[in-house]
Structure to design on (485 residues):
């Protein structure tokens, strides 16, 4: 080795060591930064010796895609489960003690007790109290369901705003990546920022990522709608102020294409936005239809019949805002929110609870107990039969279209519990999948402090070797100079 080649080798080592130590130091400084991808100085041998030619990120696109997908699926599942848990709490929690089905069962037991002693006024008053509990539970459930839909609408609005903001930030980061890549600059910091934004977007809506020339990025939704290509697509939504059972919420559009909601307890939704749409437009409305059908059936079961067959059947124990006896098996949106106990039976407002035993709530033509005997129980028994006999229900409520009222009300709770149980199990599975995907990606791209410190020691040894080489060259040059005298 000539002195000049030795000097060149040492200079190359000093230069490489400086660049390597700089990269390693940056890695160490970002050990706890979850959004930082580890860098590595790439060294190659040229005619001038070993040189650092570039700094690469430890990227793994396959693992990253899986992490984005898992993030979308887990976020959607957790969003759906949170809404179902809210509905469950409305019905009393684990035992569903506040569900209409529980109060209807209590009403049935009260009717049994009254029918066995029809002359007991206190038992008649107790039945009316039980009936008011049933009506109140249906009213409360309706208010809670519509409140959930309204709150969900607000969350949709927030998610849409966040998504538009993220897409705007993504344009800035993507433009910077493309510019630095095209001009030979270092785009790594911009790539970290862009990946962080894409991950946040994936939590709101499922995405598919496509890379183009110069590291340009294109985003599609999981159903193929273009979300970002050079510029962000507009995500639009108009919030609905105030919900009733018949209200249909507004759709979310991406560049004019509607966002599809998820379906099922193990939801097909990817991202919180489709899951919120599923809660607002599928889960809550179906449950509302079920309690509306319970309310309609209650009005029908306890309706009064004109004994002369001249006038139509009229609401008896239970009435509602429509004031008529509903058509059997036909859904009335929102009836559960207006159902109430007929004031003609409520003592506190001047009513007579014994009209439930005798009939005549709607006038003398509807009296069954014409003799006025205190032992008359036929009408009470007919109400109990009505609660347990099969009747028609609207299939739009997604339960059996032929069932008894007691069974139907219980099945409604079962429908919600099955949905929630499926969502709970799926949430656990998708959370575990996200944890595994995140860990696998982290193992590939995150910084290991032990590994970086080991590399730093290697760089230090290379630097020391170059220092010794320069010392030897210096000594040789001094000896040559001394000899030349």
């Amino acid at each position: 080795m000539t002195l000049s080649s030795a000097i060149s080798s040492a200079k190359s080592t000093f230069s490489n060591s400086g660049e390597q130590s700089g990269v390693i130091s940056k890695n160490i400084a970002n050990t706890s930064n979850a959004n930082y991808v580890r860098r590595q100085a790439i060294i190659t041998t040229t005619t001038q010796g070993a040189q650092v030619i570039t700094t690469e990120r430890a990227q793994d696109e396959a693992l990253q895609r899986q992490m984005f997908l898992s993030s979308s699926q887990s976020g959607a599942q957790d969003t759906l489960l949170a809404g179902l848990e809210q509905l469950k709490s409305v019905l009393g929690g684990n035992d569903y003690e506040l569900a209409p089905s529980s109060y209807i069962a209590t009403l049935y037991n009260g009717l049994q007790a009254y029918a066995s002693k029809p002359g007991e006024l206190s038992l008649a008053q107790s039945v009316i109290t039980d009936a008011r509990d049933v009506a109140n539970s249906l009213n409360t459930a309706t208010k809670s369901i519509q409140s959930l839909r309204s709150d969900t609408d607000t969350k949709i609005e927030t998610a849409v705003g966040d998504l538009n903001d993220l897409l705007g930030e993504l344009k800035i980061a993507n433009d910077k990546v493309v510019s630095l890549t095209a001009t030979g600059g270092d785009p790594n910091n911009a790539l970290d920022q862009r990946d962080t934004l894409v991950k946040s977007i994936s939590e709101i809506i499922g995405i598919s990522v496509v890379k183009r020339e110069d590291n340009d990025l294109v985003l599609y939704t999981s159903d193929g709608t273009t979300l970002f290509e050079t510029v962000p697509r507009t995500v639009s939504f108009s919030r609905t102020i105030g919900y009733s059972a018949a209200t249909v919420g507004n759709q979310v559009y991406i560049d004019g294409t509607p966002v599809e909601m998820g379906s099922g307890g193990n939801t097909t939704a990817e991202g919180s936005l489709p899951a919120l749409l599923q809660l607002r437009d599928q889960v809550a409305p179906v449950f509302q239809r079920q309690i509306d059908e319970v309310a309609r059936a209650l009005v029908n079961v306890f309706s009064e019949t004109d004994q002369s067959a001249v006038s139509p059947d009229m609401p008896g124990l239970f009435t509602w805002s429509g004031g008529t006896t509903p058509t059997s098996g036909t859904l009335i949106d929102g009836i559960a929110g207006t159902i109430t106990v007929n004031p003609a039976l409520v003592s506190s407002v001047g009513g007579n609870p014994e009209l439930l035993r005798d009939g005549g709530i709607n006038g003398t033509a509807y009296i069954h107990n014409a003799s006025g005997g205190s032992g008359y129980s036929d009408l009470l028994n007919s109400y109990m039969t009505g609660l347990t006999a099969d009747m028609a229900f609207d299939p739009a409520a997604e339960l059996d279209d032929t069932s008894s009222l007691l069974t139907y009300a219980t099945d409604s709770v079962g429908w919600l519990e099955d949905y929630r149980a499926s969502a709970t199990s799926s949430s656990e599975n998708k959370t575990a999948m996200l944890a595994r995907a995140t860990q696998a990606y982290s193992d590939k791209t995150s910084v290991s402090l032990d590994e970086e410190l080991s590399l730093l020691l290697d760089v230090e040894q290379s630097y020391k070797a170059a220092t010794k080489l320069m010392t030897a060259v210096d000594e040789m040059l001094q000896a040559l100079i001394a000899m030349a005298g």
The longest helix spans residues 121-182.
